[in-house]
Amino acid sequence: MAEIVLALAAGFLVAALGTPVGVSGAVFLLPLQASVLGVSGPAISATNLVFNAVSTPLALLRAPAFRGRAAELLVVAGACVPAAVVGAYGRVTLFADPARFRLLVIAVLAPLGVQLLVRAVRGARARGGDSRPVRALPLAVLALVTGAIGGTIGIGGGSMLAPVLVAAAHQSVARAAPLALTSTLSTSLSGLVAYSLFDAFHIGTPPAAPVWHVGIATGLGGVAGALLGAAVARRAGERVLTLLLGTTATVTAATYVIQLAR
């Protein structure tokens, strides 16, 4: 029972933090899975994807700038589905080793986090970013890469797609949020199927199947957290959201640097 309560609380907190900036908050669950919730191996990534699958739909529907962007959302979803399968396979094979896994997290999140923190400290632009749609081909390539990495790490693609869209494509955080959350949801659903099949057919390093009760509990907590986060997103300024997104990436990377140094 205590494990369920902890999972509910953890899901609430990380979703409340992540939703305003277009990520699920699963980046913060990674260190908690092993140290607090007792999940190990590739199942950490798979269990995180359960959290995403449960908590992200509501966050996506309530995200700012969601309506009228069907074409962009379809491009992201279509690219992330196969990418997540590739990422899941990489997790149960090449990145089953904990040290390699932590290095991957650091390599992905640290540069993006630092770049966004610098931008936030220098001050957000007076305008709210580029309001034009991102071109289909670059968006698909970004979604493929971030979806594969997100499927490997277990945080969905949005935690990496959002910083790239803000930093490189000059999208506002509010406009990047629906694309990032779509990436997270698509990656999570596809990745869950892949991890479950890999575990059932003994492909790669076990355990690969998610710990369902932990994932569902964190996800339900995440639904409530997403409601709070969506309300925050409508009231916070661009500079605050950029700072929050950069902090999310940087803190997670720093956590893994500390773990590797031990």
Question: Can you describe this structure in just a few lines?
Answer:
This protein has 262 residues and is mostly helical.
What descriptive keywords fit this protein?
262 residues, mainly alpha, 10 helices, 75% helix, globular
Q: Would you mind describing this structure in some detail?
A:
With 262 residues, the chain is mainly α. The protein has one domain. The protein is 75% helix and 0% strand. It has ten helices and no strands. Helix 1 (2-18) runs parallel beside helix 9 (212-233) and helix 5 (98-122) runs parallel beside helix 7 (158-167). The longest helix is centred in the last third of the chain and has 28 residues, at 173-200. The chain is globular and about 45 Å long. The protein starts with a helix and ends with a helix. The relative contact order is 0.25. The mean pLDDT is 86.
